From TrEMBL:
GO terms for molecular function: ferrous iron binding; oxidoreductase activity, acting on single donors with incorporation of molecular oxygen, incorporation of two atoms of oxygen; zinc ion binding. The lineage of its organism: Eukaryota, Fungi, Dikarya, Ascomycota, Pezizomycotina. This is Extradiol ring-cleavage dioxygenase class III enzyme subunit B domain-containing protein. Pfam families: LigB. CDD domains: 45_DOPA_Dioxygenase.
Amino acid sequence: MMGKTPVYFVSHGGPNIMYDVDHPVYSKLQKIGKEITTKVKPKAVVVFSAHWQASVPGRIQVNTKEMNDLIYDFYGFPSHYYKEKYPNVGSKEIANRVMSALQSNNITAEPVSRGLDHGVWASFKVLFDPETNPLNIPIVQVSLFSSEDPDQHYNLGRAVSSLRSENIAIILSGMAVHNLRDLRYTMGNGTPLPYTSSFDEALKDAVTVAPEERQQKMADLMKRPDARQAHPSFEHLLPIHVGAGAAGEDEGKRLWTLKEGSMSWAQYRFGDVETA
């Protein structure tokens, strides 16, 4: 891959996505994963997940573990979910590159030893099936900030954007619309709630504007009257702010969306895939 790697935001759903092969998002995630392994061909992946916010305000934590355990950070699922495996390796070298990039941009970063949460490994089992589309490169997970500040996260993405020129792919794992409280009311009925539709389209508009307007548009999303319905807490939205910041001058594109009840499965890419 010459030039800069694209940046990907994936809506990951719950851990049941691993088994829900008939859900429309399953094949879409597989297609994105195949694009990354066969066309982008990165040497490593740096991933930000909705399920890891730093434990210290104003600081970013970087996983330096070489062999990552899986974190089963979900509750009430069948016992076999907690026996799932996902083969992976970390990289101290790549983790140090991340920390150096952050510190060069005046972001305090600290190394930690941590496993991969299900926002990473459950979605990666679909994106990068170990048998049919193995990733076979290091995965380094980086935390979000503990805050819900959109500009802070946009600047976090900007700080790591230089990694894209080193053939390192940046993947963000979150959810375009994510309201678990309303999920029980929509089970079995895929009709999107009004805020699901309105916020999903507002997110598309913000992501796909001209890059010089994007940061303000992304920040304005948080102030919309439907924002707290679409995201009662913003941790599933903040990864795409990181992605938008990492994109630099590259434009954002919605690859696909499905508005379903109180959720949106929108998938995004910033930048183009170079073809040989």
